[in-house]
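Instructor's aside before we start: the two examples that follow are unrelated to each other. I chose them only because their records fit on one page, so don't look for a connection. First example below.
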Amino acid sequence: MVKDLIIHNAGQLVTCASPGGPKRGAAMQDAGIIADGAVAIKDGVLTAVGTSDEILEKYKAAELIDAEGRAVVPGFVDPHTHIVYAGDRLNEFELKIKGAEYLDILAAGGGIISTVRNTRAATEEELIAAALGRLDRMLACGTTVCEIKTGYGLDTETEMKMLRVIEALDKQHSIKIVPTFLAAHAVPPEFKGDADGYVELICGEMLPQAWDCYSGSHFASEATPFFADIFCERNAFTTADAERIFASAAELGFRLKAHVDQFTNLGGSRLGVEHDAVSIDHLDAISEEEIAMLAASETVGVVIPTENFNGGKMQFAPARKMIDAGCAVALTTDYNPGSAPCPSQPMAMAIACRYQKVLPAEALNAATINAAYAIGLGKTHGSIEVGKRADLNILDSTDWRMLVYEFGGNMIAKTLVEGRPSVRNKG
């Protein structure tokens, strides 16, 4: 049987295979390693996975890639990013070093609001050009799938502009993109003191228009999930606000996500689980009771060590406790202009290992198969399994653990997206 491509002689073929759903508990320590592994690829899809002898004996291919004994891992999945924006927050970076707290910066009109001003003023073309550069940096670090949120518009016009930009990025870049609508990211200046009025605008106008935008896009025709998200936090939105937005979003057909327990515990984790959110993200202040609830649910807990590292905080999400309790845990960069300007999932993995006591195999599974389930793509992406998209990283190492052992560089020798060497433009 003739295939398009065979990759063989992988000293370690690290599959992260998990056909029954995201990995939990002890299963997160199993990276699914095949020694002297190989894969066969046809039409961008993995059609066979096994040892080199098995694959080469059974199949022929138009092209062969010899991994030369190096490790091969799945393409990384980044389930939480904010990479469509204009400007930067370099001045706030210095303020944080001097001791300023993020919520204080936000309350003073900085943080998200400063990025909102710049993003509102930018053209679609400017936003696309800037975001393509960020996607390039993510791809260079091995990411082949990512979620992108709106949330730097906070008015109907700009939020829809951001959705159009996100769709354009998916058409132009080889990274597969999943869109999320995050109008409830902060209360905009024009609604200062009237959060209820802004929530009403989100529910009555923005969410319906966002759904219409999605319905007319190629995302809908390709059955790519579309999420609604909310930042449930002090100086942002309450759990009552989240209840209203969740109800309106679910009625329209959105799947749900939530930023919760980043700084304070307002009961957001409980709310997300009760509403069957696909993921709840941050979780720095999650309670023991909520960890147990999360473990008993289908919701994925997404932890964000890059944000804690960048902010110089030691209140990392209790990822070790969450894994031991049986939660499905995923990792993300949270790539954004303020709290986590980081394009590298391997860096997120390295921080999680050191500061959250996540084992290397757990970190890899969290950044691949579990991250894919956190954005509704676990059945098609995130692992090296027959029938999934052929997104692969060939490492510059014979041992995949070098990804997290060595940090500050780039261990990726070659990235393949849909079985083809990665390039920015699909055409």
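Example two begins here.
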Amino acid sequence: MMHMLDSRQPGFDAALRQLLAFETAQDPAVDAAVADIIASVQSQGDAALIDYTARFDRLSVTDASQLELSQAELDAALHRLPAATRAALEAAAERVRRYHERQLMQSWSYVEEDGTRLGQQVTALDRVGIYVPGGKAAYPSSVLMNAIPAKVAGVGEIIMVVPTPGGERNDIVLAAARIAGVDRVFTVGGAQAVAALAYGTQTIPAVDKITGPGNAYVAAAKRRVFGVVGIDMVAGPSEILVICDGQTDPDWIAMDLFSQAEHDEIAQAILLCPDADFITRVRASIEHLLPEMPRQDIIRASLSGRGALIQVADLDEACQIANYIAPEHLELSVAEPAAWLPKLKHAGAIFMGRFASESLGDYCAGPNHVLPTSRTARFASPLGVYDFQKRTSLIEVSAVGAQTLGRIASTLAHGEGLTAHARSAEFRLQD
């Protein structure tokens, strides 16, 4: 079912590159449709939003204000939840909040000997929009992971958009919005929701940044409005890479691979292990456990398409290969995981030890589950409070400091042929 590779065999590097290859180019048909939708929402505002919501989500309203849910409706959704579900949601929210509070950046400054003050002012964004998939799909974890860091950062207003096809609302999603402190919720989705957040309509206010997952149309829309607003990232398929020393229960490893493979047919699940016998046992576990899975067809397609069981020379080589793959999720299922951290540079999140399953990170461990995919962990980081704060440089120059800085700036400006720059600095020189 899965690709079987050995790092010591000729052609391994090429086989690995092919396995990791994923075409991220935008579908021209999707891009064209999204461009039309965005242009319509930008020019027609609420009227376009009402039209697209009726057309795509089968939800007819006469006024865009009917697309907004009140805080009372969010409260009602929260109170309708079974007690155990509400408790789990609140516990997860508290853990996510507690972790992200440690990420808060603070303003700082320092004064040089001549009295020049330099520093950095940290401020929160004024307004952000979070996109949440809706309908029968329920992703309350996405609400928590996007809204809570924004709340911790001190964002002035959090706007959530969530489609409700046919008017079908999901209580657990709405309850998560209430728990996370979302300020306003609108029942719109797709590219039209992204456009509304980016440009604003008569009813939905324009935001400064849009975060959250969505389908191909949402991803294309986020690409297109980037620059008008900020975005978190355009995520690719889900990924998990497991490094195992061969001592973990093979059923655990198989199920961990399933946990990402079940997302969709192009998700990626890879095992790196130096023990050939253990790889054989994991393969047997996969065959044994797969028929039990409700999403077995998706898992099978994912594993056979982009999944692999790879024998490596040792754990050192496993770390080298992991750095090349730069996975979204990296499970370090070994006896002493902390000892290997210095060798691991590129991963969205690292799950350390045999008991840290990736699924815990998705829901309640605390760190954010919005992670870089498609090898972008080489240069990108998880979503966090940092994404909802911005930095402004502070420069206060004393009269004495202007004498030193002015001469440096004048010389460099003349070198660049920018006379006004030079003169601006020279005017402040005292001799």
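The radius of gyration is 25 Å.
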